[in-house]
Amino acid sequence: MALRLAERLRFVRAFLAHPRQMGAILPTSRWAVRDMLDMADVPGADLVVELGAGTGVATGEILARLKPGARLIALEIAPDLARLLEEWFHDPRLEVVCDSAEHIEKYLKGAKAGVVVCALPFTSLEAGLRRRLLGLLPVTLAPTGTAVVIQYSPLIQGELRKLFPSVRRRISPRNVPPAFLFACSLQADAA
User: Fold this and answer.
1) What is the CATH classification number for the domain harbouring 117?
2) What total of structural domains would you count in the chain?
3) What is the pLDDT of residues 100-125, one digit of tens each?
């Protein structure tokens, strides 16, 4: 319980320091994370990329599902939260990167992800930055992979449909506020 409170306090501090980067005042619920990850084949992926790792709510669940020998590259722009991830998770499959998601290609070194988990606050970002970040999703994804995106508004769905032939949507009502979950694939028949 004390750990969850400390996690929430760090998240709130990061939100207050950079509200447009964070997008939410509380971390995503475990239920929403599980609902989102159920939309992708994390156990089958050799490489998973997490954009906007925050306090690691999704990171922990990804690692729990990730097979031995697979890799998780977790990007978090807030230095305090990136340090938190390094302190909490001692897993050789995890690489924590404190940088903007705009630079993900530098860390992939030509590899493509089987799953991209994205919790970036697209609706609160400046339009040009939002388009650049969204444009990275299909570029980082393997041809048969899935990008899962969590948002607190359905507004991003139209932009995702321009980038991916297949976009499925679910709502996770047990999150505050309810979360909109999108599973995006480069294959048209993935739905």
Assistant:
1) 3.40.50.150
2) 1
3) 999 999 999 999 999 999 999 999 99
Residue for token digits 């994370």? 33
Band (pLDDT 50/70/90 cuts) for residue 1 is very low
Strand 47-51 versus strand 113-118 pairing type: parallel
Domain, as residue range, for 49: 2-190
CB 163 within 8 A of CB 184: yes
What single letter denotes the amino acid at residue 61? E
Kindly report, residue by residue over 62-95, the tens digit of the pLDDT.
999 999 999 999 999 999 999 999 999 999 999 9
Cα(109)–Cα(105) distance, rounded to whole angstroms?
Answer: 6
The Cα–Cα gap between 120 and 150 comes to 8
Residue 88 phi/psi, 5-degree rounding, is: -85, -30
Q: Report CA-CA distances (Å) from 78 to 21, 81, 130.
A: 8, 5, 18
Q: What is the DSSP string of 66-106?
A: PPTT-EEEEE-S-HHHHHHHHHH---TTEEEE-S-GGGHHH
d(CA 114, CA 141): 6
Cross-strand partners of 71: 47
pTM of the model: 0.86
